[in-house]
Amino acid sequence: xxxCVHCYELNPAVDEPCVRCGRPVKRPAGFSYNDQLIxxxxxxxxxxxxxxxxxxxxxxxxxxxxxxxxxxxECRDPYLATAALRSAIEIAGVxxxxxxxxxxxxxxxxxxxxxxxxxxxRARVIVAAADPKTANARIRSPHRSRGSRRCRRxxxxxxxxxxxxxxxxxxxxxxxxxxxxxxxSPSRSGRSRARRHS
Length: 198
Ligand SMILES: [Zn+2]
Fold this sequence. Notes:
By secondary structure, the protein is mainly alpha-helical. The protein has helices at about 35-40, 45-60, 65-75, 80-90, 95-105, 110-130, 130-140, 190-195, and strands spanning about 1-5, 10, 155, 165-170.
């Protein structure tokens, strides 16, 4: 039996017109493997369609994006729809699909909605982490965090009313070792370093 390339009807012969739509059952010349996968997205066998959706994502087939989006929108099978959505995200990325993903966070299908919500939420966390202020705070924070051992770098006391005092950072100095080398003493270079992370 042969599936009609146009209407997915099963036909007894590949060289005869389709019993349902009357068009050639046979695949046209130049029908590539990617074309077959895109075609399979509309297959009546849901498992086959979902597998095709996953494969298109893994292969990053950009030409499949419209068909993948259509499979999500039609949502005839939630497993196919979620596989198609994941693959569309894999191919195009969150930024490109942002407005559509926002819409899908209100989708009727629970599975599709959940994937969209998690993706959008994850993207927000990544954007927040990449914010310059947060990133700077993260870079500077290690020398302010608590540690059992002490850093050999010196810091000036931040208290404005009191006489400025050189003090050691509380951060571990495991990498540098215990001995305070010339670079870590409160010399000119030490002071400039202190200013940088006080
Ligand atoms: Zn047909």
